[in-house]
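Reopening this ticket.

The earlier resolution said the output was attached, but the attachment link was broken on my side. Pasting everything inline this time so it's all in one place.
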Amino acid sequence: MIFRRRRSAASRCPARSGSIGRRLPAALPLVLAVLLLPLLAADPLCAQADGLALDFDAGFDEVPLFDHAPLHGDRLYVVIRLAENRLYVVEGERVLWSAPVVTGTGFRLEGKARSWQFATPRGIFRVQAREKNPVWIKPDWAFVEEKKRIPPLDSPLRREPGTLGTTAIYIGFELAMHGTDRPQLVLRPDAEARRVSHGCIRLTNEDARKLYYAVQIGTPVLIF
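Inline output:
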């Protein structure tokens, strides 16, 4: 079965070699289906924005994305493909919407007798919390990177509003899909040039807010 995404006719462009239509490992759909069976059996997830259903399908036609759907079932989930730095909102076997994202650099930082790896982790996650107008609580590595003294945990120096944009969707410890105060990095046409985060998945504020309304607590997120 061909798994398809839906793309506006006005935005058609030739597919990049190797970025679309890759065959997933044969056993991956079966393994993921077993792992996510409890999640996919939950109540249907609705895409809502202030009480109004989001219209993902207007003016779209179908183009191939995967040879097989990465997850089985008819429920909504999120797929993030690190190879092309793009996020997909999927329902069953249909891609309802997609957006470019920024992901981790993969760089390693060392200092203060500690080390940090800034890579976006791969695996299956779930939406744990959603927040509007989030305030970033700067971790120790942010001060090490800036070559500044690390303040106490309750210091106001750790609070930085605006860095996470207008919306944050948390899927793990210090891991979120969120907006940004630097949308120009998300909009770079080259996927490789969008590997600039410390591990989180950044979207434009507009796309992050749309994703906020599309998912619910417990929505599966597959990163690979």
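Reporter confirms the inline version is readable. The longest strand covers residues 60-66. Residues 89 and 97 are 5 Å apart (CA to CA).
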